[in-house]
Amino acid sequence: MNRGAQPAPARATSNGGAAASTSGKPGRNAGWKSSPAWLRVVWVVLLFALTGLGVSIVFLLYFGGSKEASYVDTKSEQAVFLTNGQVYFGKIKSINKQYVDLQGIYYLNVNQQVQPNQKDTAANANSNQSVSLVKLGCELHGPMDEMLINRDQITFWENLKSSGQVTKAISQWIQQNPKGQTCATNNSTTTNP
């Protein structure tokens, strides 16, 4: 007989009679509320940081755009080369992922003799061509002096030197036409009999 012995305290049970941990650590099925306060704060801060990072990445991908616009020399003209071989000259006003905004537009018109003389050799064939710079605007469809060119139609673009022939021809055209372009109107109409 053990006179000084006291009965052992009963162990608290949870979840169907399983004994609770006596080491002070929460059990396996302990919830969010039983974790230490500092750990909950860390998790909340981490979740907010990850959310902010995700929003920033989406914002940069959608609105970030490329730095290509910083290469445009706003004091000079640019040449825009298209995938179909056409080249337009003018000033690039803006560039984004979808299009290039070109204004003050010129293009080259090549006139070639229809039936060259048979005496002409390949070396003389180039002398039968005349190249002229044309200001956009007086074509049959009457375009405005601005083009929004789809990026997938552009091979490349480049800034032009002020000493280049195209830039000199543009400057000369502007000096000769101080009031801008005037298109000749043709009032004659064609009728079918």
Protein architecture, described:
With 193 residues, this protein is of the alpha+beta class. It folds into two domains: 29-64; 68-176, SH3 type barrels, CATH 2.30.30. It is 22% helix and 26% strand. It contains three helices and eight strands, in the order E-E-H-E-E-E-H-E-E-E-H. The strands form two sheets. Strands 3, 4, 5, 6, 7 and 8 form a six-stranded antiparallel sheet that branches. Strands 1-2 form a two-stranded antiparallel sheet. Strand 1 and strand 2 form a beta hairpin. It starts with 12 loop residues before the first strand and ends in a 17-residue tail after the last helix.
In short:
The chain has 193 residues and is α+β, with helices and mostly antiparallel strands.
Task: Describe the SSE topology.
Blueprint: E1 13-14, E2 18-19, H1 37-63, E3 78-82, E4 87-95, E5 99-112, H2 122-125, E6 129-135, E7 146-150, E8 154-159, H3 165-176
Antiparallel strand pairs: 1-2, 3-4, 3-8, 4-5, 5-6, 5-7
Keywords:
single chain, 193 residues, alpha+beta, SH3 type barrels, 2 domains, six-stranded antiparallel beta sheet, two-stranded antiparallel sheet, 3 helices, rod-shaped
Put simply, the count of helices is 3
CATH topology of the largest domain: SH3 type barrels
Percentage of residues in strands = 25-35%
Q: Give the overall silhouette.
A: rod-shaped
